[in-house]
Predict the structure.
Amino acid sequence: MLGAGACVAFVGAGGIGCHSHPARPTPEAPDAAPAFVPRTFTAASFATLSAVCERLLPRDEDPGAIDLGVPTYIDGMLASPELASVRELLLRVLPVLDRESAKRYGGKTFPQATPAEQDVIIDSWQHGRDGSQHFFDVILSLTLEGAFGDPKYGGNVGGRGFAMIGFTPDAPLKKMPTMSTMHHGSVPD
């Protein structure tokens, strides 16, 4: 459940930033929804990933990162061999984020911490000088990709990220003729 003070990421002329933003509670998931099983992360790391993404793009009058399927998008994308270095970074750093939260906040992992506590940690990582800033940049980029990218890749569920920014995609193009069909004189519909 989110509270006031959510961190909303933005990209502007001055670089990447984070503004506090009030958020409304996330309703309980319907009982009929099938449980998601991560492909890349453990259940604990996926919960931490989800909490981080939701703090970067929290639910308010618009859907948040979890509503938009961002954690699921990231899990699916990082299963790709081409993204092994990014996968290894997140697999290494998400448990560190949990340990830092537990150390600061009486044993609470990052998902268990309050939104305000989560924001303190995210802010310190955003402005960190020990490599933590790199993690912040990567997770922010992946969150924005998952929220506003093409839904065919698993994020931006239902195109709701597009709606948030007023984007209406064009209809998919019809299949283009191939050289073979052009050579034989027939063109598909």
